[in-house]
Write a structure and sequence with these properties.
- The chain has 359 residues and is an alpha/beta fold.
- The protein has helices at residues 36-48, 104-110, 122-125, 128-142, 146-164, 172-211, 232-238, 240-246, 273-295, 306-309, 312-325; strands at 2-11, 14-20, 25-29, 67-75, 81-89, 92-97, 100-102, 113-116, 218-223, 257-262, 300-303, 329-333, 345-351, 354-357.
- Strand 4 (67-75) and strand 5 (81-89) form a beta hairpin.
- Pfam families: SMC_N (PF02463).
């Protein structure tokens, strides 16, 4: 798949920008603070319903603006053209596709964008929440009923936590239906997460061989969020008193995590900061490759500040791989990376939120 155009209004420093795009590699070059990353952020928002940048949602809005909108035309590998948009007025997001209102999950299911950016090392070195987001986005795109189980789980979790924090004594009978629902939804989520990681491992091994061959074989370790062999419904009932004291549900799928171990670096602490970045990049590329295997087309790949994050040899290796498979690649940098000089590349200069084509 590839984006044929993007129109962005009111996103950070981008007031009203229209970007025509081609299927191959596009570079957005310009000084820091010019709005380059915000262009990738717009594409990512269409695919995730959130930004890859940290900070308050209000920071997405251009200063003085009360709304933002992103419109795009997306061409699939089978030549289908989709026109869709994402807008925000106040705190609420609204999505449309081909003129009709749709849910955010429908939009995310239609548009797939993966991104490697300066904060991506958090996938390896950060907290579990970032890894769960990565995992669940991948499962969502290959298991159609995952979103239903995820929604059931989130609803039951919210209800149980509300009961745990109640100022009055709550009868056990009120907890039971939500704990049963949590157990049932968690069982399905756990099964699909494990299957996804098992399928991902082959693609990750291939990515690692090209980026970090010195680390040896790679292993993915999954922790489902509650004790192995235990029934979650029974466990929640048994630990209800402890959860009441803490005011939240302490075990379940919302506590799941996964990690990577190498033959020559069995613990995360054995990795340098550079190796953490390359491992995160390998995860992004592996997820994109698995998506392509299951869906028959590559997602859009965004590489933010490529030259600052990777040395020249790794830049060349990544770009050559993505060009070989025909992926659309959106790259930012203060200048055009040397690794992209040899092949066909579309280039835009970005200055104070304005774009001008160079090549």
């Amino acid at each position: 798949m590839w984006l044929e155009s993007l129109r962005i209004r009111g996103l950070r420093c981008l007031d009203d920008v229209t970007v025509p795009l081609t299927p191959g590699v596009t570079v957005f070059a310009g000084p820091n603070g010019a709005g380059k990353t915000s262009l990738l952020e717009a594409a990512f928002l269409l695919s995730h319903g959130r930004s890859f940048r940290s900070g308050a949602r209000e920071a997405l809005l251009k200063r003085g603006a009360d709304s933002l909108s992103i419109f795009a035309e997306l061409r699939h590998a089978d030549s289908r053209l989709r026109r869709f948009g994402l807008g925000r007025q106040g705190a609420r997001w609204e999505a449309r596709m081909d003129g009709a209102g749709i849910s955010l999950s429908e939009l995310v299911g239609e548009c797939a964008v993966v991104c490697f950016e300066p904060g991506s090392h958090a996938l390896i070195a950060g907290g579990a929440e970032e890894r769960r987001r990565y995992l669940d986005w991948g499962v969502f795109h290959v298991e159609h009923d995952f979103i239903l189980a995820w929604r059931r789980y989130q609803r039951a979790l919210k209800q149980r936590n509300a009961l745990l924090r109640s100022s009055s004594t709550v009868p056990d009978a009120q907890f039971l239906p939500w704990e049963v629902e949590l157990g049932a939804a968690a069982s399905l989520m756990d099964q699909q997460r494990e299957l996804y990681l098992s399928a991902l491992r082959t693609h990750l091994m291939s990515s690692i061989e090209g980026l970090l061959p010195e680390l040896g074989l790679v292993e993915l370790r999954y922790r489902r969020g509650w004790a192995e062999g235990a029934d979650l419904t029974e466990l929640l009932a048994a630990q209800r008193g402890r959860d009441i004291a803490r005011g939240h549900t302490t075990q379940g799928s919302h506590r799941a995590d996964w990690s990577i171990a190498f033959d020559h670096a069995p613990l995360r602490e054995h990795l340098s900061r550079g190796q953490e970045k390359l491992t995160a990049l390998a995860c992004v590329l592996a997820q994109a490759s698995l998506y392509a295997e299951r869906r028959g087309e590559w997602p859009v790949v965004c590489l933010d500040d490529l030259a600052s994050e990777l040395d020249k040899a790794h830049q060349v290796a990544v770009v050559e791989q993505l060009r070989a498979v025909g992926a659309q690649v959106l790259v930012t940098g203060t200048e055009v990376p040397e690794a992209l000089m040899d092949g066909p590349t579309q280039v835009f200069h970005v200055e104070q939120g304005h774009l001008s084509p160079l090549l």
